[in-house]
Amino acid sequence: MTEHYYSAKPQVESQQRTIEVDVRGVHLKLTTDRGVFSKGGLDDATRRLLETVELDGSEQVVDLGAGYGIVTAVLGTVFPNTRWTLIDINGRALDLARRNTAPFAHRCTYVQSDGIPDDVGSTFDDVLLNPPIRAGKAVVYRLFSDAHRVLVPGGRLWIVIQKKHGAPTALEELQRTFDSVDTVYKKSGYFIFRAVKGQN
Prior knowledge:
Layout: E1 17-23, E2 26-32, H1 44-52, E3 60-64, H2 70-78, E4 83-88, H3 91-100, E5 108-112, E6 124-129, H4 137-150, E7 151-162, H5 167-177, E8 180-187, E9 190-196
Parallel strand pairs: 3-4, 3-6, 4-5, 6-7
Antiparallel strand pairs: 1-2, 7-9, 8-9
Helix pairs in contact: 4-5
């Protein structure tokens, strides 16, 4: 069986490569490796998320399940006033994320964890998530709860998920956890939900 990317320390031999990404008017060369999610290039779900998310007025953002840092690398360029906390369970991926976001590392904090640590306060305007479907529904729903905990009142969780990967039930879980949930993108089996934390 192929090794799971959702692991703290991938055992598969390292074989780094450079990929090129063009999205949101940004052209980047990024380093990826075996044992990380979507090592061959920008996956379709993350591309749709990147093209949809708006962070005008946001300051503190969590890239939850950051992988090799592609979301932060792109949106940190598009929205230069944002500060980022990149979180991933995969140490190899997080090391790559440090390299790939080096041009604005002074705006980034890197955390190796399988979720948002308990000691993180409710200080974030947005959380962005392409959930680790292969890790299972319990893990994904825990990440929803983690996001709700650390968002400021009015803060937003943005999540991209395919219908075949459980978008309808994920929507129901988001509606149980957050005060309001909008479907901001729906095309070709992909959904992007924007869940907003209440003011109280």
